[in-house]
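Hey, quick one: can you model this chain's 3D structure?
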Amino acid sequence: MTQLALCVMLVSEIGCNRDGLVICYVVIPPPDQQWGIKLPNDTWTGMMGQLDRQEVDMALGPFTMTPQRASVCDFSVPLHHENFAIITPRPKLQSDVLGFIKPFTVQVWLLILTSLLSVATAMGCVVWAEGKIFRHSEKNIVARAFLWVFCTVTQESSHWLPKKDGSRIIVSFWLLASLVFMSSYSGILTAMLTLPRVTVTIDSLADLVSQSALPWRLETGAAILTYLKESKEEVHQKAYRNMGPTIYALLRERQAVAEGKIAVICDETSMKKAMDLDFSTTGQCHLYIAQGKVMTNAMMSLAFRKNSKYLVQANHRVRILLESGLWHKWIGKQVANSSHCLRHPRLDRREGIQPLNLESFTGPVLILLTGATVSLLVFLCEHLSHLYVQPPKSTA
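Sure thing. Here's the predicted structure for all 396 residues.
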């Protein structure tokens, strides 16, 4: 793991004492390959278990500092603060079936529909009243008024116009309003087609536990396991109860995450290293770190056996590395290629102008097919009524 490799470099620094002599050390991996959590029988797993049983003098990590772990080990000076989040497959640009109605909100669409009905009704009433006053008749006034209002909204021409000034004033103001409506709609729709939509379905722990399509995993023996288990928040409890089998490390499972098989909850430094390796090998970004954090500002440090004689010297070396900026420089080098993939997926762009595919027009095509189906049904009803419902014969 990224930080584990950095801690090996750190141990090399600690291994030199003040007299310039080198202290030899042997790396003893834990049999179960875990960080270490406390079991119900008060024993510990992983590297924490090795410290508790005094099998080793120190444990590489760095480890999340918790009161429970501090009962069996002594922590060094904190190396840095870490956030725990969720890493998922990277959301991709996709077409939206209902994209053609997205330029306006539901409230705006309802107001436009209300305006259409109101103007058509008002125009029909005024034309009818003008016919009574000026003694001229108009056939199908209501149908013509509604059809004319609909044609103007869709920017279609109409041969019918009211004959008198009162109704023509309504026509003038409606033409101006419909011009504003449709110009705004066409402009926003053009912009939305130019900038395809990216939907991020999992951007927090609440999003993760509320879905069932993507299972999630945690690293074996990590402190985040205990944190979720002991938390009183329902979302944390649900995340712990419904998680799948634990994994050894994210870096071993990064391909499974990229392929959309699992999501992983772990520290962000490991996530950035997974992104770094993915981008370095493929030249593309296949991973995404959710914006919502699961745990924040966890202090990370080395762990030593209780009352270890190496702790004072280790703290001295750690402070030197932190004050000189070497530790953060080392981390930066390990995850240098992750910066390109840390930007939000909505900023991902294809090269050049992409032609619209059939999926982009799915919504309008469905409306067209629905209209054709309804018109066919109406035609069949008219035809059947003409065949079986005969008008009464007139008697001489």
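One thing worth noting: The chain has a mean pLDDT of 83.
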